[in-house]
């Protein structure tokens, strides 16, 4: 399976299933506790967003979560982490089955995160950008007591503006560099990425979070790229002007979030490295997974408290991950 663009510049296929799960059920999928299952892989940055948001908002009882393994083939993600290789709720071996059940012969990308309607076994949506917003807005009736406001109405325009440039230049920017098929396309993506990281560093130099004085959706989206930067993007995707650990402001910001409940305790560095280095064989033909980098720095002091800010606003931190949803021992930063 090839990932490098044959035309030079990588363009992400963004044709996602647009159905939404809403409080009023206008698309035929009303919010309903226990009805849906969020399918993720801890390896994937887009899915990692949904894992974090679900956890911060305390939606575990309302929305169950299935975790696919870190690798996949052209036929999609598999549930090889589960006994018998099947998701225990959906009873399927591959996420592809849920897509085909709704759209036989589905030809677009079978991606995570995806939300599946458990009674029918059909996929509802894989629109990753919309999923986390809807978890904040449409699922509000099922949020835990003390859940933070990740997408507060008065800050939505600013959050949306930040998310737009972070997606284009950083979240997707690392892929535009890594999957570039020409020197020109690679260098264009490379400079665009680091120019944006420099601007974000300037923005975060005197403010603890990207928007306002609390954690928002914008921080979640930037974090899932930053946490993968040194283990994967710096080497595998040739984003090597600087390591994250060599960008003092962003490194401190990322450590601050990592040490915040709901962020670092969702990160599986083993799955992350296995996914990129084993799956992208046109970039890494041997499939050898690097032994490094040293991850112990993630737990060192960051000093960002001096900037003020209240991580959860008027809310409270989430409780520890529930049994069965913890990152496996030895896969995190310790």
UniProtKB/TrEMBL annotation:
Q: Where is this region: Disordered?
A: 299-334
Q: Where is the GST C-terminal domain?
A: 152-279
GO (cellular component) term, any one: cytoplasm
What residues does the record give for site: Lowers pKa of active site Cys? Answer: 233, 276
What Gene3D superfamilies does the record tag this protein with? 1.20.1050.10, Glutaredoxin
Molecular function in Gene Ontology: glutathione transferase activity
What are the positions of the active site? Answer: 44, 175
Provide the alphabetized UniProt keywords: Transferase
Tell me which CDD domains the record gives.
Answer: GST_C_Omega_like
* Extent of the signal sequence: none
Q: Name one Pfam family in it.
A: GST_N_2
> Which residues does the record give as glutathione binding sites?
77
Q: Which InterPro entries match?
A: Glutathione-S-Trfase_C-like, Glutathione-S-Trfase_C_sf, Glutathione_S-Trfase, Glutathione_S-Trfase_N, GST_Omega-like_C, GST_Omega/GSH, Thioredoxin-like_sf
This chain's protein is named Putative glutathione S-transferase
Write the lineage as a comma-separated list: Bacteria, Bacillati, Actinomycetota, Actinomycetes, Micromonosporales
């Amino acid at each position: 399976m090839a990932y490098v663009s044959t035309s030079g510049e990588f363009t992400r296929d963004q044709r996602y299933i647009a159905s939404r799960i809403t409080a009023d059920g206008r698309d035929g999928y009303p919010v309903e506790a226990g009805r849906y299952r969020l399918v993720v892989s801890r390896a994937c940055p887009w899915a990692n967003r949904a894992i974090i948001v679900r956890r911060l908002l305390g939606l575990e009882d309302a929305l169950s979560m299935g975790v696919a393994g870190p690798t996949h083939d052209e036929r999609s993600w598999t549930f090889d982490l589960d006994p018998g290789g099947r998701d225990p709720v959906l009873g399927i071996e591959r996420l592809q089955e849920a897509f085909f059940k709704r759209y036989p012969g589905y030809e677009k990308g079978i991606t995570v995160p995806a939300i599946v309607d458990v009674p029918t076994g059909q996929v509802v949506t894989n629109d990753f950008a919309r999923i986390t917003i809807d978890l904040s807005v449409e699922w509000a009736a099922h949020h835990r007591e003390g859940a933070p406001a990740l997408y507060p109405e008065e800050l939505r325009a600013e959050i949306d503006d930040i998310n737009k440039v972070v997606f284009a230049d950083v979240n997707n920017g690392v892929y535009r560099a890594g999957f570039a098929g020409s020197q020109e396309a690679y260098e264009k993506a490379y400079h665009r990425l680091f120019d944006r990281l420099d601007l974000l560093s300037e923005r975060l130099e005197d403010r603890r979070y990207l928007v306002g004085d609390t954690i928002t959706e914008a921080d979640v989206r930037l974090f899932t790229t930053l946490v993968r930067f040194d283990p994967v993007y710096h080497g595998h995707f040739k984003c090597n002007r600087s390591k994250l650990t060599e960008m003092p402001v962003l490194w401190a910001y990322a450590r601050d979030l990592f040490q915040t409940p709901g962020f670092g305790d969702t990160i599986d560095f083993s799955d992350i490295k296995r996914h990129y280095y084993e799956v992208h064989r046109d970039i890494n033909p041997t499939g050898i997974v690097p032994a490094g980098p040293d991850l112990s720095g993630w737990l060192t002091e960051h000093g960002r408290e001096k900037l003020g800010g209240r991580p959860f606003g008027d809310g409270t931190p989430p409780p520890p991950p529930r049994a069965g949803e913890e990152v496996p021992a030895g896969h995190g930063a310790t």
